[in-house]
Specification:
- 2 copies of one chain form a homodimer.
- By secondary structure, chain A is mainly α.
- In chain A, 75% of the residues lie in helices and 0% in strands.
- In chain A, 36% of the residues are buried.
- Chain A binds a DNA duplex through helix 1 and helix 3.
Chain lengths: 208, 208
DNA sequence: GTCTATAGCGAGATAGAC
DNA sequence: GTCTATCTCGCTATAGAC
């Protein structure tokens, strides 16, 4: 039972909603760009708004405040990443390959990576608005990797002994984040994909 | 040939210089504390000055400006670290053991570690005042580790093949930085020393 | 060497017109 | 839905008294 039966009204409302959605996307794109360049703390709402082509009060019509803007940008990033790569698979081999595929995509298309790395780095201090979110993500990544290495071990494809799967998970997560930071500082001196692939190879007999 | 022969004047001047030096140290201690808690960007000169027990203008008598304060704090940290641990040794085994000893000290006494990690993280964005300094440090660490692994390889104590010493250096530096960040977020869930020792063991046959 | 006072800026957020 | 105008705040840095 629609609120209105007038098809012209519905169409107009639909168009408006689509335009608003497009506006929101443009603002989020601008925010990701700005955050990745100067960090969340270094970015002003006026800066984001200018990149998106509106005033900062116009921006605040679409998002409640600055932390809300960051949260929306992070949510969108994680939703799209989950769609693209199957980190949730039960199969450890698939997770290993997803890690490498994600690194290859990140090197080709580094905007999202830079955004996430910069915000992750900033959020090390507990007062940062994304601190809690990032700690949750860190724990989820560790759990995912632990499950993947455990699966490999049960299938006889694991060779990192005496490191346990949960220790190996910390190794893999730490090296990944550390290497991303090194790569962002000196992209010409590091082959990020090979660093990550090289470490995962030390943990499994599967060809990667 | 002293500027004055009056021993009382020399003594008074010496006492004053010592008091000033002590004041500078207190300010640097306060700055390291503040930076480690809320980061360089999140810290105001008023905050540092209050912790050190003087006004922010009084602080600016001892340091030229905010970037100058950060630089002085970083210089002091690296000078004291170089005194305490022999990272410059030609002997790869000594460097490996220094890395583990430094981690043990860091876990016991985490203030310096937290300061360095937070500033390292923040300085990922190029506009940060410590960006250049940290990139230099990153390259120096890589060179040091490459030399250490090369030394181990020449003495038949290296087992990370097919990883070359320079690749292993990136692995070691990245994992160290990444693990420090993980540990600072969830200190109870990670044994930082064992993570670092565990990785170095994968690279050498020496008992660590 | 340290202070008070203040200049000057840029930020986040709100009010109200259109 | 977007704007201009404004409020209020905190910051770095300087000037000048003591």
């Amino acid at each position: 039972m629609p609120l209105t039966d007038d098809v012209r009204v519905r169409r107009r409302v639909g168009l408006q909603a689509a335009a608003t959605e497009q506006r929101r996307r443009a603002i989020l794109d601008a925010a990701v760009q700005a955050f990745s360049e100067v960090g969340y703390n270094g970015t002003s709402l006026r800066d984001v708004a200018a990149r998106a082509g509106l005033s900062h009060t116009g921006l605040l019509h679409h998002f409640p405040d600055k932390p809300g803007l960051l949260e929306a940008a992070l949510d969108r990033l994680f939703d799209s990443t989950a769609l693209e790569f199957d980190f949730a698979s039960d199969d450890g081999v698939i997770v290993m390959r997803a890690l490498i595929a994600a690194a290859e995509r990140d090197v080709r298309e580094p905007t999202s990576l830079r955004f996430l790395a910069v915000v992750t780095a900033e959020s090390l201090v507990p007062s940062h608005p994304a601190h809690g979110f990032m700690r949750l993500m860190q724990q989820r990544v560790r759990e995912t990797l632990t499950a993947a290495f455990t699966d490999l071990q049960e299938r006889g494809l694991y060779r990192a002994d005496p490191l346990t799967p949960s220790i190996a998970a910390v190794h893999a997560a730490s090296l990944r984040n550390g290497a991303i930071a090194e790569w962002l500082r000196t992209p010409d001196e590091i082959d990020l994909v090979e660093i990550i692939r090289g470490q995962l190879r030390m943990f499994t007999t599967v060809e990667l």
